[in-house]
Design goal:
- The chain has 383 residues and is mostly helical.
- The N and C termini lie far apart (95 Å).
- The radius of gyration is 29 Å and the shape is globular.
- It is built from 15 helices and two strands.
- The chain has a two-stranded antiparallel ribbon with strand order 1-2.
- α1 crosses α10 and α5 crosses α6.
Length: 383
Amino acid sequence: MAMENILSFLGAALRLSTPLIYACLAGLWSERAGVIDVGLEGKMLAGAFAGAAVAALTGDVGIGLAAAVAASMTLAAAQGFVEVERGGDQIVCGMAVNMIGAGVTAFVGAALFAEGGRTPALPREARVLPFVWGQDALTLGAFGVAAITAFILYRTRFGLRLRAAGENPRALDAAGGSVRATRHAAVAVCGLLCGLSGADLSLAQAAGFLPAMTAGKGFIALAALVFAKWRPGAALATCLLFGGLDAAAIRMEGAPLPFLGVIPTQAFQALPYLMTVVLLAGFVGGARPPAAAGPPYRREESHGCARPDVRGRESGAGQGLRALFALPRRRGRRDGNRRPVRRMQCRERRLSQRALRRGGGDRADGGCRGAANHGRYGSGRRR
C-alpha cells in the first residue's frame, strides 16, 4: 500500500510538472538569445484555448494540438516583431501579451460557446490520453524536449550562436551571424513550447478550457528558470520540484495533521506560490541573466556612428564566447606578414633601450625624447 501511494504521488507530480517544464524551457530558449519573455502566461492561455476550441469543434486531438501550437506561435511572432525589429520594451510587451491572452480567450470563448468563456467538455477521442505508466505523450515528450534543448545549446553551432546572441551579440555579428534571425528563431521555439504547455493543460489534464486556467504557471516557470540559472537540467529538476508541491497540496487537502488538525485547502494551494516567493527572495541572489538580455541590439551603421554597449556586466560564458568569436586565426597558423612585423617591433624596442642607456634619462623627459629621435633617425646597426 505504501509503495502504491508513493508511485501514485510520483505519477501525479510528473503530470502536474509537465506544463511548467514546457513553459520553463520556452523561457530558456528566449532569454538565452537575449529576449526577456514575461509573456509566457499569455501564450499558454492562447494555446490552451485554441487547442480546446478546435478539438471541441472537430473532435480530433491532433488538429487541436496543431491549433494550440499555431496560436501560440502567432502571438510569439507578433511579440518578436515588436521586440526584435522595432526595439520595443520587452517587459512591457510581455505584459501586453499576458493581457491579450487573458482577455481575448475569455471573450472569444463566450462568443463561440456561450458558456462564460469555457469550452464544452471534450469527448475521449479529442483528448490526450495516458498510455504508458499512466502518463500521456506530452508528459513523456517534455523530458525529450529538455534533452534536445541541452544538446542544441551546448553541442551545436546554432546553440553557440544562440548563446552568443544573448551574451555578446557584437561577437556574433562580427563572425557573420545574424543576431535578429537568431533571436527570431529562439522566440519561435518559445512560442511552440508555450503552445504545447497550454495544450497539456486543456487537452490532457482537463477536458476543456477554463478562463485563466494557467493560474500563474507562466510566472512560476519564470521563477524556476531564474532559480535554475538558465540551465536546461536544473530547470527540469526545479519544475519537478514545483510539480511535487502541487501533487502534495492535492493529496493533503482535508487530511488532518498532527497537532494542527485539518488545515484549510487554500493553505495547501498556496504552497507553490509561497515556494516561488522564497526562491526569488533568498536563493537567486547569485543568479546572473545573459549579459545582453533586455536592450535591443542595433548594428553599427556604415558611417561609423557609435552604438551603445549592450553587454552590461559580461559573465564568464560571455567572455569565452567573445574570445572564441574575436580570434581571427588559430594559434600555430602561419601568416606571411607576421614575422616582418615582429622583427620591426623588436628592432624598435632595442633601439629605444639603447637610447635610454646612452644618457637620455638625465632629464625628466629626455629619455623618451631621445628614444623617439633615435628610433626615427638612428641607423639601427647591430653591434
